[in-house]
Write a structure and sequence with these properties.
With 412 residues, this protein is an alpha/beta fold. The strands form four sheets. The protein has a seven-stranded mixed sheet, with helices on both faces. Helix 3 runs parallel beside helix 4. It has 13 helices and 15 strands. Bound molecules: ligand C6P. The site of ligand C6P has 17 residues, from helix 3.
């Protein structure tokens, strides 16, 4: 039997069968969050029906069973990222919390006055603001790698920014606003040559290409489960074990201690040290199911499918008069950001919505990108494994309709 085409797996996603505004849903807002396959929905609900208990503390069977499932989920994340050890994986609420963990734990322990943090001009706010908060407290400075007109990082400028003061480079793997895939392996090599640590924001990467943290050589890697067909409220931080072992806790509570006394407390080993309180147990189990799901299809197959769709969509929208793509790097993942003459991105988003086409409009929590390109925002279509040419056709037809409504294009 031949393998089904990647987009045929759309049938595994119950929500895609529901009409929206009376039409077939063309869901092109996967950068914001992806839909969930039956296997993920079922894994989460099965946990509550059959295995629910708190973890790490119970002596009873169900608690031990729930603990096993939770720790197996950690092992799945280790496999997804190619980490050497499962205790290098800390569960978090998502990318944002993972970056805040590094900023508040590693950053506060290691940043000194005069130190420099190198960010890039295409970071999501969650890879800017935590650094501003801790840099301000530590007296450290933020330096920013500029972008080219096609939305790539200026590597010459990056190299020039690196030096003995650089303590950390924090860079997005795939830009959510431009789609650019950054040359992170090379950037990590250059940063390590000056003794800096590197955090990679993988929020838009892990669902769209295979990732191997050991091959990349990064020190920290952050991602969210909900952009990988998993539940919301769960994600993970990968951190190299020798860094994690030296890092102080950033949140206190149950499960992260070894001993507690009023005179002072001592900490559990990583990763427990960084998982204070009852975690999102069901979410971790749902995330494991999502990882199994994409692994069964194959991340490289998913990447190839999305790449073909991106090329098809790029060619189709380039034929639309008055449309300008924002982000035209040669290395791109499935994100198409654009502006249309005379139509505000929000109006475009509303008109497309009436046609059953879900896109995102605005600054995408990457305001410095919008400032760089001199625009208030973009309309963004972002692809997932279940999208196909019909979604692109609906998008193109919807843009045409918006142009007619705004009198920007004659009726044909
Ligand atoms: N970007 C988008 O529509 P959280 O919210 O923690 O799951 O992910 C934050 C985040 C961090 N980095 C990048 C590159 C991201 O794209 C995101 C989330 C969504 O583009 C919501 S703004």
């Amino acid at each position: 039997m031949s393998m089904p085409a990647v987009a045929d797996f759309a049938r595994d996603f119950p929500i895609l069968a529901r009409p929206v505004r009376g039409r077939r849903l063309a869901y092109l807002d996967n950068g914001a969050t992806t839909h969930k396959p039956e296997a993920v929905i079922e894994a989460e609900s099965r946990f509550y029906r059959e295995s629910n208990a708190n973890i790490h503390r119970g002596v009873h069977w169900l608690s031990q069973h729930a603990t096993d499932l939770y720790e197996q989920a950690r092992e799945r994340v280790r496999g997804l990222l190619g980490a050497a050890r499962a205790d290098e994986i800390v569960f978090t609420r998502g990318t944002t919390e993972a970056i805040n963990l590094v900023a508040y734990s590693w950053g506060r322990a290691n940043l000194r006055p005069g130190d420099e943090i190198v960010l890039t001009g295409m970071e999501h706010h969650s890879n800017i603001v935590p650094w501003q908060l801790v840099a301000g407290q530590a007296g450290a400075t933020i330096r920013v790698v500029p972008l080219t007109d096609s939305g790539e990082l200026r590597l010459d400028a990056y190299e020039a920014l690196l030096g003995p003061r650089t303590r950390l480079v924090a860079v997005v793997h795939v830009s959510n606003a431009l789609g650019t895939v950054n040359p992170v392996a090379r950037m990590i090599e250059l940063a390590h040559a000056v003794g800096a640590r590197v955090l990679v924001d993988g929020a838009q990467a892990v669902a769209h290409q295979p990732v191997d943290v050991q091959a990349l050589g990064c020190d920290f890697y952050a991602f969210s489960g909900h952009k990988l067909y998993g539940p919301t409220g769960i994600g993970a931080l990968y951190a190299r074990s020798e860094l994690l072992e030296a890092m102080p806790p950033w949140q206190g509570g149950g499960d992260m201690i070894r001993t507690v006394a009023f005179e002072g407390s001592t900490w559990a080993e990583p990763p427990q040290r960084f998982e204070a309180g009852t975690p999102n147990i069901a979410g971790a189990i749902g995330l494991a199911a999502a990882i199994d799901y994409v692994a069964a299809i194959g991340l490289q197959r998913i990447a190839d499918h999305e790449h073909r769709l991106l090329e098809h969509a790029t060619a189709a929208v380039e034929r639309i008069p008055g449309l300008r793509l924002i982000g035209t790097a040669p290395e791109k993942a499935g994100i198409l950001s654009f502006v249309v003459d005379g139509i505000h991105p929000h109006d475009l988003g509303t008109i497309l919505d009436a046609e059953g086409v879900a896109i995102r409009a605005g600054h995408h929590c990457a305001m410095p990108v919008m400032t760089r390109f001199g625009i208030p925002g973009t309309a963004r279509a972002s692809f997932a494994l279940y999208n196909d040419e019909r979604d692109v056709e609906a998008l193109v037809a919807g843009i045409g309709k918006a142009q007619q409504m705004f009198g920007r294009r004659p009726h044909r």
